[in-house]
Amino acid sequence: MNFSKLILLTLTALLIFVGCQSESRQDRAKNTDKISTSDSIEISNAWTRPGGKGRNSAVYMRIYNGTGQPDSLIAVETEIAQKAEAHESYEEDGMMGMRPVGVLPIKPDSVLKLQPGGVHIMLMNLNQSIADGDSILVQLLFSQSGSINVTIPVQLTNS
Amino acid sequence: MVFFYKRFFFSLVFLSILILSGCNKPEIIHDLSHDNFQLLNQDSSTVNFPSAFEGKYLIIGFIYTHCPDICPITTANMTNIKNQLKNPSNAHFVGISFDPMRDTPSALKEYMQTFKLDENKFTMLTGDSTTVDSLLNAMDIDAEISYVDTSSAGARSYRMNHTDRISVMDPQGRVRFEYPGSRVPPEYLIEDLNKLRNSWYEFF
Q: Nearest residue of B to residue A130 by CA position?
């Protein structure tokens, strides 16, 4: 084997090594929410997805517990759907599923995040269609703070 | 001697391009190029999948219209991909329902209107259960009824567990990339899609 062939082979090997390093992209999304302060329960970033009559939708928001005491979201009521419950999306054995999560505790000075792909309020069997640009009324019931009415905009996304 | 080095240099450049392109060539994950699934679109028109889309790169999401959380995220992701994709002329977006029992063409039409999907770029597909099941099987998508609820009025409703997937199919009907549909950042898929669209080896 002459010198030029040796160089060619070495460069080829290097190119194969470098060229094969590229990988398919993986999901690396991160959340970097800012926590605001309050001396009571504070709701922010509330929104819900559109949905047709008889379909389901999901409500998302941030709930900050500024009361200084532990509190819990114990129920959700709304006239827009036949039923509203706290649910979570989860992944198991490569499949996505959803299940009710019951009471959601919120420690003092902490935030409960209801977000896409995680814990959310599921609106089951909508009584009427809700479209992008509409708003709906939801009543959140807390174990210590009582009920809080929230007007929630209907949006395609949160961006 | 100069001739030899010139030849050596050009051979090396050609070989480098060949090797770098070859190493990045995405595998064929599922080959549907010889399959034909007779489905219905949102207008109740018959669509032979995938041949009806021959020549297009397909971005395919799997959904059901009663899904409140994951499927709308996947749908929103597909819209974001469409909006961020430069030169989308040879790309098309397809939503395939894994709940054909409830997702009739009119239900899919309503879903498109609800989520403001561009009818020129999106097609929603459903069909008879046997055909849809065969297609899902060919594309390695699992879906099953997970929870059944019966209202006081006797109305039955159910939720589903399902694969979270967006797939990229090449113009020959072969799946080349798969992603977690509700979680993949649009720019990642677009980067892979553009590599595929711009690769010389795809012409052979």
A: B114
